[in-house]
Design goal:
Strand order of the largest sheet: 7-8-9-3-10-11-13-12
Radius of gyration: 33 Å
Strand content: 5-15%
Number of helices: 21
Distance between the termini: 64 Å
Structural class: alpha/beta
Shape: elongated
Length: 619
């Protein structure tokens, strides 16, 4: 197929270039003595009403026919792709209005719109090209809208928004490159359809007008004597079909090449890396949030997944956030990072990041503060990166955008960060794309990319999920190194109680959209005082437990996110509930140094394990 396609396209290119040069003058030369002649050896396709050679006209018309089709396709693609891609970035009401506009334009058949606009603009080559471009734009817009919708909610788009990139950079660097391949294939195929449509307009008298010619006009004129001399009409038709099939085969060939490229994997080569320079650690509060609430309107009512979260993080501190699925952990992190989904709204009593009140900053100032001071490590390393951009581009984008770092210097910084996360084949890896790396490699690159700006806060949302225990340990070691080297505060979100207790300084236990306990990590096993925390700890498998005894579980289910019932959110599942728990919600109250609990009747501290039992469990 590739050879056939190249031969067909090559022949069209040769005819387009040579047609006007070699046969242009002959096509324009009338011969009154040879009017309407049948095909002969001197005139293989015959002559027209002025005695001009039809074969010369057919060959000379190759360039204008192809040029008009390509121009109409490109104009329509640019307009439609821009309109469709905007729906992935504007969001909210503007996205819905653009979607409604695309649907309205698609309600009218493309060829019918092209005929109407050609008549409106006036018959001629320019009017036909512009009319077809306008008529084809909605089709490109719909395809782009569908493809861009898959990109809009990805982790790498969220990370790009945190970087504070402007809208046109988001479109050009993240949305369009990610969907470029199917759009390119669609545009190639559309060029063949545009050639047929323009030929049809010329055939109807709405396109190219004499004395200019294209294949459609030649087909129209040859139709007058098709029953006596069919060749003057058949030859332009064959040319139209030939070119349309060539464009179609080109799209097929590009699609096959894209599939083959996706399965190529680069090797690795060792390279040297420059030593990095550490910045001195400073002391202070990085984040302070009080009474954070998130509401999300839906067709069934208003969901309140976060209901009054209060937390603080100090510089260089690693705080774990644990709880069941649906407790509001990820939405809390997204609200802090200003990355809530469309329609969701966050409110708070206090929200300070790096000492600045979020309410006192403009949107531009807030985005820049988040871009330079905060980084996110997402749960799924496969979706954390834009698969259409190279690793080097994505790692260096933040420092080049917000620090003005030259490209060469940014690459050296990226190499140093890759070396820090034990990925030695730096330069080859920077030229790779995300799908060419393993899951563990992608997660290491995500940590390296998050540390490129030396942020004050890293939010790690389930960074070790779906990784084996060895890679989990390596990821935790890398986070500890980043925390130590740059005095970075880390909010570590996880379901793994044992992992959090081992890695973090403090643990925040979240249930029903609220923080129910805040305690030092080393006290989690025996010092938890909230019934929910105690039951979470008990549900962790223990090597010293009786294998014949069933694992501990928490009976019941989480509270209804649509509900707003008073009282403690855990009282329906709590075996120690009081009558007061059903009507009055507890607040976080101090129990000791660094220990707070939201419970009307905190449990007594659990007895410590005997040394022998502890030793056996460790073994």
């Amino acid at each position: 197929m590739g050879v056939i396609t190249l031969v067909m396209l090559g022949s069209l290119a040769v005819l387009a270039v040579a047609g006007a040069v070699l046969w242009g003058q002959q096509a324009d030369r009338p011969d009154p003595s040879a009017v309407l002649r049948a095909p002969t050896t001197g005139h293989l396709l015959g002559t027209d009403r002025l005695g001009r050679d039809l074969l010369a006209w057919l060959l000379a018309a190759t360039w204008p026919s192809l040029l008009s089709a390509v121009a109409a396709t490109l104009l329509g693609a640019v307009a439609g792709i821009t309109l469709g891609a905007l729906t992935a970035e504007v969001g909210g009401r503007a996205a819905r209005l653009l979607g409604a506009l695309i649907n309205l334009l698609l309600a009218f058949p493309e060829l019918l719109v092209a005929m109407f606009l050609s008549a409106l603009f006036g018959a001629g080559a320019g009017g036909a090209v512009f009319a077809l471009a306008v008529a084809s734009a909605p089709g490109f817009a719909r395809i782009t809208q569908t493809l861009a919708a898959q990109v809009a909610g990805t982790d790498f788009m969220a990370a790009a928004r945190v970087l504070g990139l402007r809208r046109h950079r988001l479109l050009l660097r993240h949305v369009l490159p990610h969907i470029a391949e199917p759009l390119m294939l669609n545009t190639t195929v559309a060029a063949g359809s545009a050639l047929v449509a323009l030929s049809g307009l010329s055939f109807l008298g709405l396109g190219v007008q004499p004395p200019s010619y294209d294949w459609g006009l030649l087909l129209s004129q040859g139709l007058d004597r098709i029953y006596t001399e069919p060749l003057p009409a058949v030859a332009p038709g064959i040319a139209i079909v030939y070119a349309a099939v060539a464009f179609q085969l080109l799209g097929e060939m590009l699609a096959g090449a894209a599939v083959r490229q996706a399965h190529r994997h680069p090797g690795e080569e060792p390279v040297a890396h420059p030593a990095r320079t550490d910045s001195p650690a400073s002391v202070g509060q990085v984040l302070e949030v009080e009474d954070l609430r998130v509401v999300l309107p839906t067709a069934d009512g208003v969901i309140r997944p976060v209901r009054g979260v209060t937390l603080t993080l100090q510089r260089g501190e690693m705080v774990g956030l644990v709880g069941e699925s649906g407790s509001g952990k990820s939405l809390t992190a997204l609200a802090i990072a200003d990355l809530l989904p469309d329609g969701a709204r966050a409110t708070w009593g206090t929200h300070r990041f790096l000492g600045a009140d979020a309410d006192s900053l403009t949107r531009e100032e807030r985005r820049r503060q988040l871009a330079t001071g905060m980084a996110l490590i997402f749960q799924n390393p496969a979706s954390a990166f834009n698969p259409s951009l190279r690793i080097g581009t994505q790692m260096t984008e933040a420092v080049r955008t917000h620090r003005g770092t030259p490209r060469a210097e940014a690459v050296e910084q990226a190499l140093a960060r890759l070396q820090m996360v034990a990925l030695p084949a730096g330069r080859r890896l920077l030229r790779s794309r995300p799908f060419q790396l393993s899951g563990g490699q992608r997660q290491r690159v995500a940590i390296a990319a998050a540390s490129m700006m030396r942020p004050d806060l890293i939010i790690a949302d389930e960074p070790t999920t779906a990784l084996d225990v060895t890679v989990q340990r390596q990821i935790l070691d890398l986070l500890r190194r980043v925390r130590h080297d740059d005095a970075t505060a880390i909010l570590f979100i996880s379901h793994d109680i044992a992992l959090v207790s081992d890695a973090c300084d403090r643990v925040l236990v979240m249930y029903g959209g609220t923080i129910v306990e805040n305690l030092p990590a080393h006290e989690l096993a025996v010092g938890a005082r909230h019934p929910y925390t105690r039951m979470l700890v008990a549900s962790v498998p223990d090597l010293a437990a009786d294998p014949d005894h069933p694992l501990h579980t928490i009976e019941g289910g989480p509270p209804d996110p649509y509900g707003s019932a008073p009282g403690c959110p855990f009282h329906d599942r709590c075996p120690h509930r009081l009558d007061r728990c059903a009507v009055e919600s507890p607040v976080l109250s101090p129990l000791g140094p660094g220990h707070e609990v939201a419970c009307w009747q905190p449990l007594p501290s659990a007895p410590s394990r005997e040394p022998r039992e502890t030793e056996e469990a460790q073994k």
